[in-house]
Write a structure and sequence with these properties.
By secondary structure, the chain is mainly alpha-helical. Among the domains are: 46 residues, no CATH class; 105 residues, no CATH class. 12% of the residues are buried. This is V-type proton ATPase subunit a. It comes from Capitella teleta.
Amino acid sequence: MSALKEALKESALPWELIHQNQKDSYVIIVSDEEPEERLLPTRRSHVGKIPLSRLEEMRDEAEDAIEDLLAERESLTRWSYLLDQVLAARMDSADLEQATSGTMDEDSFFLVQGWVPVADQANVEAFSADNGIAAIFEEPTADDKPPTMLDKAAGTGGGADALGFFQTPNYRAWDPGNVVFYSFSLFFAMIMSDAMYCLIFGLIVFFFRGKLKQSETGRRLMNLAYFMSAVGIVWGVFIGSYFGAAPDSSGLLGQLAFIDLNDYNGMMKLSVIIGVSHLIVANVMTAVVNRGSSYALAPLGWAGLMAG
């Protein structure tokens, strides 16, 4: 404070010390223009020109405005139910219009158009023959956008189910369900990085196996979970992690642990190899799906570039 008082005494501007405590001093300096920064040994506080009484009035006005807006919002909520009903009716009409756009109904003649998996074509033909229905099957054209149906095998179909959590691939893209089954398990193992936690995960799945077996989707996900647990246990043994503790290096478990997670360069190389391998497989399979088309050259080029 002594340095501040000395600086003020040297100034020709009128000033007044209005308040002071052990930490701060509040000084008012009257000047027509902004004083020079070197006038005082401290920075100026720009508190504005509005007095405290006016600021308190503005705060009260803002609180009153907020209360009015809340009341208006509450009054408008009485229309929420009616708007929901109208919106639901419009959505039903749109769905009905979309459904009827694929049908034709003229007196005794009714025509419906839709998509059917190739594996179910025989069932549709049998149903048509039994009910006197004429059925015509056509291959999708380049302008069509058929829905995607993933191949879900009993053993590795859980990969396709897990893929549904992210994004279903395009109809003309390759089916990555089987690859996801293995890569998802590997990623799970690397994230957990503990043999015992993965074992507990497998035991939990085993405990709920009765509920999972009640549906085909549950059985596929159960197989995926078992495989994830197995891969996680193997990875945990390879890195030597059991509930976060490392085994004795002289023992059997210690000798099986040959991967060092603390080796930053080695783990970075492994991560890059796994990531690039996935990209190579994806590009190669995209080229296979589009074989016979010039579009296959681009993914083949990228795959070759990454492999090199």
